[in-house]
Amino acid sequence: MGSLSRRRLVAGLVSCAVLAGCGTADGTGSGSTAPGGRTSVKLQLQWFVQAQFAGYIAAVDRGFYQEQGLEVEIVEGGVDIVPQTVLAQGQADFAVAWVPKALASREQGAGITDIGQIFARSGTYQVSFADRGIRTPADLKGRKVGNWGFGNEFELFAGMTKAGLDPGKDVTLVQQQFDMQALLRGDIDAAQAMSYNEYAQLLEAKDPKTGQLYRPEAFTVLDWNTIGTAMLQDAVWANSERLAKDGAYQETAVKFLTGTIKGWAYCRDNPQVCRDLVVARGAKLGASHQLWQTNEVNKLIWPAPKGVGLIDETAWKATVDLALTTRNQDGQTVLTKQPDPAAYTNEYVQRALDALRGSGVDVTGAGFQPATVTLNEGGA
Asked: Taking Cα atoms as reference points, which of 23, 39, 98, 74 lies closest to residue 260?
C-alpha cells in the first residue's frame, strides 16, 4: 500500500469504536478472575488468525496458560485494528505488534513496553518476477513498487535509502492490497510479501505458461535481513503504567510469557499439530499454507541462543537507528527522537526463561531444523 502520511501511519490514535473486537470499555483483563480461579487475560493480535500466531494458539489449546493460572482470550486483528492502541487504551492486557510501528505509537503517547521479542528476524520480502531483473534495491529505480503502507513499508524505504534512492522521486509507489494479485497480473514490478504468507501465495499460484504451480526460481527476493535493513517485528507489548504500578500485572506478565514461550517451543517441535490448531481456529488459507507458515515463522524464532523473547540490544538499536534516519516519500522519519529506556525490558521474559529452563523446556532450539513443506494450489 502506498505510504500514507506519518501522522496516519504511526499515531495509532484510533477510536475503539472502529476496532472490531477491541474489548470491553472497562478494560476487563488481568484484574478479573475466570472460572477455576484463573486470572483472565486478553491478548490482541495484529492480524487475522494464522500460523503467525501459532504459539499463542497452542498455549491456549494445550493448557500452557492454564498451567500458569491464566485464562487467555485471543482477540483477532485486522486491517483497521492497531493492536498497540487497543493495549494503550486498556482494552487488552497484552498485544502483538511490530517494533517500529509500536515505537511510533509510543512516541505519540501510547504507554506500551516491549516485554518479549518473539521474532528475532524479519519476515518481510520484496518479490519480483525474475525476468524483471530486480536483484538489489538499486534495481527498483524507475519501477512500480508495491507496498501495504500502515508501517509495513519501513524496511523497504530503508533498503531504498541505503541504495541511494529517494522513495519520493526514484520509484513509483503503488498501493498494494494484502495479496499478490497485482504482481501476478503485471501491474507492479515488485510486491511486498511476508516470507510466511504472501510469498507462499505466489508458489500456490499456477504459471499460465506451464499450467503448473510457480517454482521459486520464477522470482527474485529482496530479503531485508540479508540487505541489512531488517527491523524487529512480532513482540509482546504490555501496558507501561500497569507494569510500573501493579504488582499483580507484573506477575501476570511473567506467567503470560512463560506460557507463550512454551507454546512456541511446542510449535517448533510439533509443526503439523500447530498447523491443525490454527486451521481449526478458522484460518482463511488452508492446511498446506498454514504448515508452510508455521515452518517459516519457526525460522524467524529459532534458534534463539539466549532464549526466545530476550530483546537483543544490537537488534533493538539497529531498528531504532533505521526508524530515526529512514525517510518516506514525504521526507518524514518513523521516529523523531530516541525512545526512552522504558520502551523495552528483559526483566519479565528473563524470569519466564529461568522458570522454563528449570522445568526442562528447551528455550533456545539449538538443534532446530526446518520441516520440508509441499504447497498445494490455493494453499489447500
From this structure: 74
